[in-house]
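so my prof wants the structure for this chain in the tokens format not the other one, which i didnt know existed until like an hour ago. anyway here's the sequence
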Amino acid sequence: MKTKYLFHAKYRNLGWMVFIPASILGFVTLLLEWEPAFLDVEVLGFFIDEVFGVEKLVGFTENNILNEILGILVILSGLTVAFSREPDEDEMITKIRLESLVWATYWNYGILVLAFLFLYDLTFYWVMVFNMFTILYLFIIRFTLSIRKLKATSGNEEYH
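here's what i got, hopefully its the right format
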């Protein structure tokens, strides 16, 4: 089945090669609060509200860009992994892709609702930071496991 909105299958491996290291490094960076000094740069920003500085609608501010680089790498590579065509893409795989996306969306917003109900202040902030990526991770996990299950249980040579 030919779908116009999916990347070519050959990009999936490249996506994995960036997604896994960027995810690990991003998690470790947040956990250890590591910000290498060489990534401290002046950046253009909007709605700048410096802790001990001025508020500006638009302007330049000093920022360590490691989190931005890793966040963008995780998003772009995650989208590449999630939405690259399977070599044997057909209606069954399309159905699994849709079901995985719906499942990930429900779980993502379920987590968010629980956070609204039970978490506050800085804890809520951290859940929101991780929630930006949760839907992508949940989809990739569910879709990958579903495809592996399909290939393992199918007697049809088409999926092997």
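also thought this was worth mentioning. The chain has a mean pLDDT of 91.
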